[in-house]
Amino acid sequence: MRKSSTSRRLDVVVAGMAVADVLGHPIQFRNMPKPGGLKLIDSITLSTGGNVSNVGIDLAKLGFRVGGITRIGNDALGKYILREYKKHRINTTGIVADNEEQTSATIVGISPDGERTFLHTRGCLVNFRVSDVLKNLPMIQRAEMFVFGYLGLLPETEKDLEALFRTIKKETDAKILLDTGGNPRKQPKRFASFIRYVDYFIPSYEEAVALTGKNNPEKMIQYFRNAGAPGVVGIKLGAEGCLISGNDVPEHVSAYPVSRVVDTTGAGDAFVAGFIAGTLKGFSPSAAARIGNRVAGECIRSVGASTAIRKFESYVNR
Predict the structure, then answer these.
(1) What is the pLDDT of residues 154-176, one digit of tens each?
(2) How many Å is the maximal CA-CA distance in the chain?
(3) Helix (H, G, I), strand (E, B) or coil at 24
(4) Which conformational region is residue 130 in: left (phi greater than 0), alpha (psi within -120 to 50 degrees), or beta?
(5) Which of 139, 171, 194, 294 fits as disulfide partner to 162, beta carbons 3.0 to 4.6 Å?
(6) What pLDDT does residue 282 have?
(7) Residue 17 CB burial class (10 angstroms; 0-12, 13-18, ≥19)
(8) 32-46, 133-147, 304-318: which has the highest mean pLDDT?
(9) Beta bridge partner(s), residue 43
(10) 8 Å CB contact between 172 and 140
(11) Helix, strand, or coil here: 146?
């Protein structure tokens, strides 16, 4: 047993990306104003983004104890993110204030059907390294689950993921969930070096295509197994739900029906938060995925990644 008995326990530690999002809704990209022109939209919202924010705040709202490991700039956007973390009682001892670069930020244009277009600056996340995580190993030792993301958007960390995950397996009892984002590169040898330590790996369909070069979800899952993935693997399929394999035949889990989609920002992270919540509560992989789909369905009903998330009990037996 390698957890501290004297420190307050955590359920989940989320490491990776913290982003400030400026969301405009709705934006009709095919009918933009002429240069120098003006067009009115319904709302412009400042929100948190990135997996540390989205998964972390979602889990906190679901009722779990969360710690974050990331970098923010020493600027107004960074201070805003930090206030939001403290508002949701997220442990911020793993947050580094970077004095060299601005806070990572995204302009998110939301179309009338809820789809998004992104303009992103990486900011201080260009300085984020695996060493930032390892400095906070005592925090991870107090957690049930360690979540890292995103594979594909933090290229500076990828060469060290094997060492990171191996260390976490050796020094802690935390299960590891690896999340993906953007356009991860297909690197079979490197992927095989770290996926063998990962307990939960459920990329989106598009991200799985990039990683595997395949377009069939069952073949993607087999690719992950052949690479050495030992635990739960799956594919997020958007409006079609997801495919989940807990070391057995993949099972399709239907999406939660939503009458009106407002904003799909953070839907994938909401699924991850719901899946983690169900897993920590003892549900089977397919049942946890069903809860994840329900949380994601709730997420896309409102503007912002975490706006609509409620207590965990709201998503059970619905």
Answers:
(1) 999 999 999 999 999 999 999 99
(2) 63
(3) strand
(4) alpha
(5) 194
(6) 97
(7) buried
(8) 133-147
(9) 25
(10) yes
(11) strand
Run of H or E residues at 226: helix 217-227
Q: How confident is the model at residue 270 (pLDDT cuts 50, 70, 90)?
A: very high
Q: How far apart are CA 218 and CA 13, in angstroms?
A: 30
- Return the structure tokens found at 234: 């799956």
Of 282, 281, 285, 283, nearest to 250 by C-alpha is 285
Q: What is the DSSP letter of 257?
A: P
Is the CB of residue 51 less than 8 Å from the CB of residue 149? Answer: yes
Residue 291 backbone zone (phi > 0: left; psi -120 to 50: alpha; other: beta): alpha
Which region among 169-173, 243-247, 272-276 has the lowest average model confidence (pLDDT)?
A: 243-247
Two structure tokens written together for 269: 């992270």
Residue 35, amino acid? P
Residue 294's contacts (CB-CB under 8 Å, 6 or more residues apart) are: 256, 274, 315, 318
Across-strand partners of 151?
180
Q: Is the model's pTM score more than 0.85?
A: yes
List 48's β-bridge partners, or say none. Answer: 20
Q: Of 91, 14, 281, which is closest to residue 295 (Cα–Cα)?
A: 281
Q: Distance between CA 87 and CA 81 in Å, rounded?
A: 10
Helix axes 188-195, 217-227, angle to 10 degrees: 70
Gap between the Cα atoms of 172 and 135, Å rounded: 14
Tokens linked to 62:
């679901």
For residues 109 and 114, what is the distance between their CA atoms, to the nearest angstrom? 9
The helix (run of H) or strand (run of E) holding residue 312 is none
Cα separation, 301 vs 83, in Å, equals 24
- For 97-137, the DSSP string reads EESSSPPPEEEEEE-TTS-EEEEEE-GGGGG--HHHHHTTH
Beta strands 19-25 and 116-121, pairing class: unpaired
Q: Can you tell me the distance from the alpha carbon of 243 to that of 147, in angstroms, rounded to the nearest whole number? A: 20
Structure tokens belonging to residue 66: 């969360």
